[in-house]
Amino acid sequence: MIIAAALAGALIMAGLVLLVAELVRRAPAPGTPPGLRLAPGRITAARKRLALAVLAGLVMLAITRWPVGALATVAAVIFVPKLTAARAARHRTATLEGLEQWTRRLADMLTASRGLEDALEVSARTAPAAIAGPVTALARRLSARVGTEEALRAFAAEIDDPAGDRIAAALIIATGQRGGAVHGVLTALAEILARDIAARREIEAERAQHRTTVRWIVAFIAGFTAFAIVNRSYSAPYGTLAGQVVLAVVALLYAAGLGWLHRLGTIPGPGRFLDPQPQQRAAAAPPMAGARR
Questions:
Q1: Could you read off the pLDDT of 144-198 as tens digits, one per residue?
Q2: Which residue of 97, 143, 176, 237 could cross-link 290, Cys pair, CB 3.0 to 4.6 Å?
Q3: In 3D, which of 101, 105, 117, 92 has the Cα closest to residue 171?
Q4: What distance in Å separates the CA atoms of residue 59 and residue 201, rounded to the nearest whole number?
Q5: What's residue 30's pLDDT?
Q6: Which residues contact 74 (CB under 8 A, 6 or more apart)?
């Protein structure tokens, strides 16, 4: 009877967590394409984390017999690394650095005797590692005689950043022109990227202190949880129905507090503006002279 009541309390807690997550969820930035697919590597990592979370929850349930504690452990293993990690910010900075280097090299390759499409194909040989995949895919599309605009829009979608949209849009406008007319535009875009990267590094240095604070709070919560589990006389009241309800409320308050701290230290990225596919009116318009079909 107590176990059934505790399971009911755990389900209530899960419903409250989902309700709060939906209420505080941020709307996607304007221009963000819906239904983005995860890369196979990210799917595999997510599955491993989910398996580890379920295993940790089962261990917690076996030790304490607290369904709410097991559910809270599963949620902690899944979400706490996202609150304290800076992988996404580092990945975006590396992508911007790669775009800056590639744009400068592309501008240097665009000479009066070399067209834009040829320079794009050649640029895949020396593309920075952070954007080697999208640049190689762009070169392959151009080699397969895919339209230049379509290939550049697909490239921007793989980069998935407004900086990639700006570069792709400039190259789409310059399609069919010689390198001398595009060199200045690409150089200016590279300078903008360099300033953006420098500003992002300063911001990340400030946010690192905030993430350190969150890590200390998480460490304190983990230490207190371990103490409560070891000290059975202290944690005995949590084995009752009322104790499970109190534990659910406490866990929900901790989750809300950590989520609030994470939101304070998170800067939402700007939305993209370039559609993956050309618009119908662009397809109906007469092609520019020299542009690929």
A1: 988 888 999 999 999 988 888 999 988 888 775 555 567 888 888 889 989 988 8
A2: 176
A3: 117
A4: 40
A5: 41
A6: 53, 54, 56, 57
Chain Cα centroid distance, residue 42:
10
The residue behind tokens 């070169």 is: 139
| Residue written as token pair 């304070």 | 264
* Rounded Cα gap, residues 273 and 163, in angstroms: 10
Q: Where are the domains positioned within the chain?
A: 2-25+40-84+231-264, 95-197
Using the predicted structure, report yes or no on whether residue 293 has a pLDDT greater than 70.
no
- How many CA atoms within 13 Å lie on the side-chain side of 124? 16
Q: What is the distance between the alpha carbons of residues 10 and 116, in angstroms, rounded to a whole number?
A: 60
CA distances 125 to 56, 135, 157, 179, 237, Å, are 45, 9, 21, 19, 65
Query: CB neighbours of 35 closer than 8 A, spacing ≥ 6?
Result: none
The encoded tokens of residue 250 equal: 């406490």
- Percent of the chain at pLDDT > 70 equals 73
The beta-carbon contacts of 118-126 under 8 Å, at least 24 apart in sequence, are 119/179, 120/171
> CA–CA separation, 190 vs 107, rounded Å?
9
Cα angle 149-151-155, degrees, rounded to a multiple of 5? 115
Spatial CB neighbours of 143, under 8 Å, sequence gap ≥ 6: 121
Reported confidence tier of residue 140, pLDDT bands at 50, 70, 90: very high
C-beta atoms surrounding 6 within 10 Å:
25
C-alpha to C-alpha distances, 28 to 37, 73, 269, nearest whole angstrom: 15, 29, 10
Tell me the one-letter amino acid at 147. Answer: G
